[in-house]
């Protein structure tokens, strides 16, 4: 009997040891343009967490258009965390009961660890002299933009253009609507995501200008070289934020809340902020921002809250079914 007990004890100890070594797996569901950011961030977190807890963590990634990604989570994709390109997508998960209502207060900076801005990418030499928003609405100009209805990049680009028009002398909702109508008529198609838009512009050679995140321009430079394009900073543009949240229903089911929370918190660590800066995302840490100041020229920006009240108000007015975007698109 004692021999049997010893054998069982040895088996149980072996099982515990195997489980401990196996660690946990986290799934980060994110938007299209963040692939490279998290490719480099994940090993930093894994090394940190292993040293702190002796626990191995495997991190899996899922990328696509921001709105499509959160709909996949709502439909059952078991994300431990979401790292998105617009607040309204996380609020969508709040409405579905998957994310806590106070998610933005669980991390610093309204749960946005870094920012970027909407800029223009043009062909080398800027042959059509596209220097500011009104140039993009001129006849004969082709604009490549991600879909404003289904992607964070597209929505941010649309809102940047709207705010520029609104803030011109005599600007109001009517003039902004007219301006967006002209600009969107110049779009031969709407790309399905940031990378699809980039591929359309650079590989398929469609369009005269690509509207995208500032950080995406550096990805383009790394992949395609700087000889084919130039970055243009409009006179006024949107500061884009990248909110993050723990998916409460999933981490409670899997027992991964501690690891998932630490994963997001580490985005504000020195290593996390350095990684963001190296990918041309504007870090929140003032020391890191100073170190990488050459990466971030001064741009005249506004926030969504300053112009639209909140991301939720902007979404409800412009992007819900039947909203202003649908009305403009129907007339397009």
Structure description:
The protein is built from 17 helices and 12 strands. Residues about 1-20 have low confidence and may be disordered. It starts with a helix and ends with a helix. The protein has about 325 residues and is an alpha/beta fold. Helix 2 (about 35-55) packs antiparallel against helix 13 (about 270-280). The protein has helices at about 1-20, 35-55, 65-75, 85-95, 110, 135, 150-165, 175-185, 195-200, 215-225, 250-255, 255-265, 270-280, 285-290, 305-310, 310-320, 325-330; strands spanning about 25-30, 55-65, 80-85, 115-125, 145, 190, 210-215, 230, 235-240, 245, 280-285, 300.
pLDDT < 50 runs, ≥5 residues = 1-21
> What's the order of the H and E elements?
HEHEHEHHEHEHHEHEHEEEHHHEHEHHH
Q: How much helix is in the residues?
A: 40-55%
Number of strands: 12
Distance between the termini: 82 Å
Q: What class would the helix/strand composition place it in? A: alpha/beta
Provide mean pLDDT, rounded. Answer: 90
Whole-number radius of gyration? Answer: 22 Å
Query: Count of helices?
Result: 17
Shape: globular
| Beta-strand content bin | 15-25%
Main sheet makeup: 8 strands, mixed
How would you summarize what this structure contains?
This protein has 17 helices and twelve strands. With 332 residues, it is α/β, with parallel strands linked by helices.
Task: Sum up the structure in keywords.
alpha/beta; eight-stranded mixed sheet; four-stranded mixed sheet; 17 helices; disordered N terminus
